[in-house]
Amino acid sequence: MLRMIGTRMLAAIPVMLVVVTIVFVLLRISPGDPAVVLAGDSGTPEVLERIREDLGLNRPLYVQYATWFWDLVRGDLGTSVMSKKPVLDLILSRVEPTLVLAVTALMLTVLLAIPLGTIAAWRQYSIIDRAIMAFSVGGLSVPAFVIGYLLILWFSLRLNLFPVQGYVSPFADPLRAMLHLVLPSVTLALVYSALITRVTRNSVLEVLEEDFVRTARAKGGTDRRVVLRHVLPNAAVPIITVVGLSIASLVTGVVVTESVFNIPGVGRLMIDAILARDYPIVQGLMLFFALIYVAVNLVIDIIYVIVNPRIRY
Hints:
MetI-like fold, globular, mainly alpha, about 0% strand, 2 domains, single chain
């Protein structure tokens, strides 16, 4: 186990290097100039040149990369072009809303998707199965921002049950925090549960055709016991995979949802940084997202071994 973890962590190093290099190059060759954003419409060529010199943008690309990479090795993600604050501090100040929203949405997703997928497989080709699959197709087809605006229209503006937007820390006021999290969490849960439902259904269907399931039924096992004790544990590996990938996607994919519900998380920070051409923040956030993906994949590999000891790397 420890050898596998060490090997995976070492393999993640070149992945991270490739990610940060690609992000750095793409940002430098993409349209837009931070100097123009800082100077405004009235900026003269002299002012623009002075700003580029202060930011180091007039130096050769390889020099900019070497400087940034050396700072990164020392744990310095740079300073924001717009706010002049350390990038690491800005990211850490926005992590809580994103993580709270992602964890809440993940809990709703798992509680919704796995039972629905299991029921659909158990009642294959029935009306229940077709209704669940229709829900799954709808979740995969409708964009998150459309679901978010519809929920706001129905439950906030018409029924006045939940706040339209904003974020309250659960450590400050748990009740208000729960009310603010309901709509964005349900939005994300409806989107991500669609895929997990389909994967769960397919995985459970495969296991239901195995001989040991028929044997368990022949011994007089109830449907509930057969599903919980024999089917789900053996169908767990594909489900764990898609749930693990959904964790990373939730953290990195809340950009649209945070914008719709005006939640001050890393998604909003990313959008503001892109619009302002704030290179250090964008680079720091992409590195943060890449770390999350690597960490989640490592955890998934460990869970594989725990759930199914026959798996070896």
